[in-house]
Design goal:
246 residues; 4 helices; globular; disordered N terminus
Length: 246
């Protein structure tokens, strides 16, 4: 809701007080206050979550099951969101980058943050062995934190040319590249290993204060095409919901 400006409020007060001033002629009573001036109403504190989508809104932006490759279906208990309430901003973990976190299903914590003030996520996989999987996580961040998260993703790739997949005792190569045309900014990461049948594609994309972190192993191309298709749909949905500046 728009509020009257201070100037307009003070002008209205002056017009209303004019008859009283004329009737007193020699003097007039000023507004209460130690300095004889009108006391300004206390300003409303700025909403720290202004412009941030809720978990409910982020959930609506996730790509639907119909967009997934054939045979890739929802994973039981793989969907969650923060609803309409915002969460207190989590503290950022300091210290050396834990490169093994690139192997996590939901890998946002490679940045040192476990999430934003709102989130939504879903997991789809080919059953029963989940050999092909696509996960998508959306997080809402206050202020310019979303831009900082994207910088931290790039920095993590620079700090981690490889990591060790302890489950398979394999060395995993990490490469990253800028991905123009996807949201406000995007970065694509590819994980490959000589011991894997197929690699993994990770995509981080930002639209305003929201960041998508996606993981795909679907298909025979390191999960790239399927991941890009899902990411493009999520970005399109986020852009449709992006708050417009007044």
């Amino acid at each position: 809701m728009r509020l009257p400006s201070r100037a307009a409020t003070r002008a209205a007060f002056a017009v209303a007080a004019l008859p009283l001033a004329l009737s007193l002629a020699a003097c007039s009573s000023g507004p209460s206050g130690s300095d004889g001036k009108a006391s300004a109403a206390p300003s409303k504190p700025a909403d720290p979550n202004a412009g941030v989508l809720t978990g409910t809104q982020l959930k609506q932006a996730l790509a639907p099951s119909s967009l997934m490759p054939k045979g890739v279906t929802p994973v039981a208990d793989g969907t969650a969101d923060s609803g309409d309430e915002f969460i207190a901003p989590p503290a950022k973990t300091a210290g050396k980058t834990d490169c093994a976190k690139f192997g996590n299903t939901y890998w946002l914590d490679i940045t040192g943050l476990k999430g934003g003030v709102s989130f939504a996520q879903s997991d789809h996989a080919k059953q029963p062995d989940q050999a092909e999987e696509i996960t998508q996580e959306l997080d809402g961040f206050r202020g310019t934190t979303a831009q900082a998260v994207m910088k931290d993703v790039r920095a993590a790739v620079a700090a981690c040319p490889t990591y060790t997949d302890t489950a398979n005792h394999a060395k995993v190569k990490i490469t990253g590249k800028e991905t123009p045309g996807l949201g406000d900014e995007a970065y694509t990461i590819t994980l490959t290993s000589s011991t894997w049948e197929n690699g993994t594609t990770l995509i981080a994309a930002r639209v305003g204060t929201s960041v998508l972190t996606l993981m795909s192993t679907a298909g025979s191309d390191n999960g790239a095409a399927a991941g890009q298709k899902v990411a493009a749909q999520v970005v399109k949905s986020l852009q449709a919901q992006k708050p417009k500046s007044s």
